[in-house]
Specification:
Blueprint: E1 2-3, H1 4-14, E2 27-30, E3 35-40, E4 50-57, H2 58-61, H3 71-92, E5 104-105, E6 112-113, E7 119-121, E8 125-132, E9 136-137, E10 140-141, H4 143-161, H5 169-188, E11 194-199, E12 229-234, E13 238-246, E14 249-253, H6 260-268, E15 273-274, E16 283-285, E17 289-292, E18 300-303, E19 321-323, H7 328-342, E20 346-350, H8 356-359, H9 363-368, H10 383-390, E21 393-397, E22 410-415, E23 418-421, H11 423-432, E24 469-472, E25 476-479, E26 482-485, H12 495-512, H13 519-533, H14 551-559
Parallel strand pairs: 1-2, 14-21, 14-22, 17-20, 20-21
Antiparallel strand pairs: 2-3, 3-4, 4-8, 5-8, 6-15, 7-8, 9-10, 11-13, 11-16, 12-13, 18-19, 22-23, 24-25, 25-26
Helix pairs in contact: 1-4, 3-4, 3-5, 7-14, 12-13, 12-14
Length: 567
């Protein structure tokens, strides 16, 4: 480790030199209150910025141990510090030349509190990873401006955003307690036979389709119907009441624009924790919930979709079904089977994004097109079997087919964003208006067959590079020469998750795909390694832009890799 004065003298000597000479500053430097580590130096002012770390002794940072003594609290505190660093960096960072010169930034984030590899904290030190655009004019080093950044801006950042005495202790306490309570609530769901909980006074609507902050002025606070209201006694906030959604089959019904899809979306994202003030802090869902939709055009590799689809024209097999261009029905069938293979206990479906012919075949259509001429067994005839055979619950937004009243355990009607329990009314209607449709689902759901991926079919190389990965927004991974389209995987909420998933696929191939392990076993091992050794286990480099994903999104990405082959 070098003294900070060595860094200053080197930067001044480099003033006016070629930008590539910045590589000479790579290393660790001891400042008065922290260590500055320069891990990677960009080769060009227009390239991806340089990667730096600061490590602050806890004797300086001063965070009380109770703020990070549990996993929930630690993740919450790390998230809070990431946001504080970003706030101060935006204030301090200024343009200092060409390209990214003068940039100081940390990873992007949304409303969700995710485990990231941006900030780490323990009893000994606090570490923060961020990026810096080292200053240049053209492609010549601006050494004096680099000195200002590293000797003035970064120490200011540390003192304003990373020292406990400089921050709001009440806000920190609120965040760690909110996240701890939300995690506790999610863990308690099975004790009351629930798959989701929506707290009273939650604000579910968002400001827009691209602004995921809560709608404020016109939002109607959520209020549970009395028959579905449950209460919990949280570790920090104490008593909390709200709507509990029981296991089984739940319909969310109602007129258009009354909040059906808004409620489902909140439940869908209830697998993650939200920051205080989001309005959905205490909307929690079974952590294995998977949103299912039709996905025309996706590739499918060796999936047994026979519980839903049989007797395809030309005698095509559906017990080992593969295609590069799935239809709405075959894609939705594959999405369900793949989610079951990955271990889901809860499916979430909105009729607006489902294939109609996959969801329902009414009596009139059954009369016109006999079963021996229709390869699709509709979901209405399999949803009950999913629950009885595999204990997998389903929540459906359904505004167009009352036939589902026959199979529902709970029916919730949304009226002007307020839920009503209409289960008894729906069952009475089902008794009064008999559909007389024939069940086409057979006696059991069907077997779920394990799949073993072929390792060589997963190739992250491109040109001379053995691994070439790139993330585009939050819906696509460039994986070697392939593009993995994840636009329809709605529970990916952060680009950092995509980066982690891409690296995890490579990690899985290198470590677990050569011993005939099934996809489920591979997911188990990768997620266990991450839990034991954190996200850094999937990368060979020190970087601060990764976010934790679930096994279901990792499986979704692997299954959408068009080169994937199954043994």
């Amino acid at each position: 480790m070098l003294d900070r004065h060595n860094l200053k003298s080197t930067l001044l000597k480099l003033d006016g030199a070629s930008y590539k000479a910045y590589k000479d500053i790579k290393g660790s430097y001891q400042f008065a209150d922290f260590t500055l580590v320069i891990d990677y130096v960009q080769g060009d002012p227009f390239a991806a910025p340089s990667q730096l770390r600061v490590k602050i002794p806890q004797s300086v940072a001063g965070f009380p141990r109770q703020l990070y003594q549990s996993k929930s609290r630690e993740v919450a505190l790390r998230d809070y510090l990431t946001r504080q660093f970003d706030r101060v960096a935006n204030k301090i960072s200024s343009h200092r030349g060409t390209g990214k010169s003068g940039l100081i930034a940390i990873t992007r984030y949304g409303q969700e509190v995710l485990e990231r590899n941006t900030v780490f904290i323990n009893d000994d030190y606090l570490e923060v990873r961020f990026v810096v655009g080292l200053p240049a004019r053209g492609r010549r080093i601006l050494g004096r401006q680099a000195v200002e950044m590293l000797y003035e801006d970064i120490p200011d950042l540390v003192s304003e955003s990373l020292l406990y005495q400089s921050l709001n202790p009440q806000a920190i306490q609120q965040q760690v307690e909110t996240i701890e309570d939300a995690d506790w609530l999610r863990q308690q769901l099975p004790t009351k036979g629930l798959i989701a909980f929506v707290a009273n006074d939650s604000i579910l609507p968002r400001r827009s389709g691209v602004d995921f902050r809560p709608l404020l002025d016109e939002a109607i606070p959520f209020q549970s119907p009395p028959s579905l209201e449950v209460e919990f006694n949280c570790p920090n906030r104490g008593l909390i009441k709200g709507m509990g959604i029981p296991t089984g089959i739940t319909l969310i019904v109602g007129g258009g624009y009354h909040g059906k899809s808004t409620l489902l979306k909140a439940i869908e994202l209830g697998v993650y924790n939200q920051i205080p003030g989001d309005g959905r802090e205490f909307v929690v869902t079974n952590p294995t919930a998977v949103k299912i939709r039709a996905e025309d055009g996706r590739s499918i590799a060796g999936v047994d979709i026979s519980p839903f689809i049989n007797q395809l024209p030309q005698g095509r097999s559906t017990t080992n079904f593969s295609t590069t261009n799935a239809s709405g029905s075959t894609s939705q069938a594959a999405n369900i089977i793949e989610a079951i293979e990955a271990g889901t206990e809860l499916l979430l479906i909105d009729e607006d994004t489902a294939a109609t012919n996959f969801m329902i075949r009414d009596r009139r259509m059954q009369q016109l097109i006999s079963k021996d001429k229709e390869p699709i067994t509709p979901f209405i005839d399999k949803v009950r079997q999913l629950y009885t055979d595999y204990h997998i619950s389903t929540v459906l937004v359904m505004g167009g087919s009352g036939d589902y009243f026959d199979v529902a355990d709970t029916v919730i009607a949304m009226e002007n964003f307020r839920p009503q329990d209409v289960t008894e009314a729906a069952k009475a209607i089902a008794q009064q208006y008999i559909t007389n449709r024939d069940s086409e689902g057979g006696v059991n759901f069907g077997q779920i067959r394990s799949r073993i991926p072929v390792a060589y079919s997963i190739n992250p190389s491109r040109g001379k590079r053995e691994v070439k990965l790139k993330v585009r927004d939050v819906d696509e991974i460039a994986f070697g020469t392939e593009d993995i389209d994840l636009a329809a995987v709605e529970q990916i909420v952060d680009a950092g998750q995509l980066r982690s998933i891409a690296l995890a696929i490579v990690y899985a191939k290198e470590n677990y795909m050569n011993s005939r392990q099934t996809i489920s076993e591979i997911l188990d091992r990768v997620m266990n390694d991450i839990n034991q050794e954190r996200l850094d286990v999937v990368t060979n480099f020190i970087q601060g832009d990764l976010a934790l994903f679930r096994r279901f999104e990792l499986a979704a990405a692997l299954n959408r890799l068009r080169s994937l082959q199954i043994e």
